[in-house]
Amino acid sequence: MKQNIHPSYNDISVTCSCGNSFATRSTTNEDLQIEVCSDCHPFYTGKQKIIDTAGRVDKFRRKFGTRKINVPA
């Protein structure tokens, strides 16, 4: 890497609207306020809902969901 051309890498604090806070590193000098983090995002908490439009999820599950893969022992 070339010297003196890269921005400085600083320790910052990230605070979510749910109250979770963690430390990370960034090229910004400011602490971040975010709306969603891994503690409150539905994908990570297991509360995610699949919205099925036009039966596409059921169609996919019918087509690929019942297949069993034979794994050699």
Q: What is the second-level CATH architecture?
A: Irregular
Care to count the β-strands? Answer: 3
Give me the secondary-structure category.
alpha+beta
State the share of residues found in helices, binned by percent: 10-25%
At the first level of CATH, what is the class? Few Secondary Structures
Order of helices and strands: EEEHH
Major sheet: size, sense and barrel closure? 3 strands, mixed
> Which regions have little confidence, pLDDT < 50, spanning 5+ residues?
none
Mean pLDDT: 80
Measured by DSSP, the beta-strand proportion falls in 15-25%
Span of the ends, CA to CA: 48 Å
Radius of gyration: 22 Å
CATH topology: Rhinovirus 14, subunit 4
Q: Shape from CA axes?
A: elongated
Secondary-structure blueprint:
Layout: E1 10-16, E2 21-26, E3 32-34, H1 42-45, H2 56-64
3D structure, described in words:
- The chain contains two helices and three strands; from the N terminus they run E-E-E-H-H.
- The chain is α+β, with helices and mostly antiparallel strands and about 70 residues long.
- It has one domain: Irregular (Rhinovirus 14, subunit 4).
- It has a three-stranded mixed beta sheet, with no helix packed on it.
- Strand 1 and strand 2 form a beta hairpin.
- About 0% of the residues are buried.
What is the gist of this entry?
Helices cover 18% and strands 22% of the residues. It is of the alpha+beta class and 73 residues long.
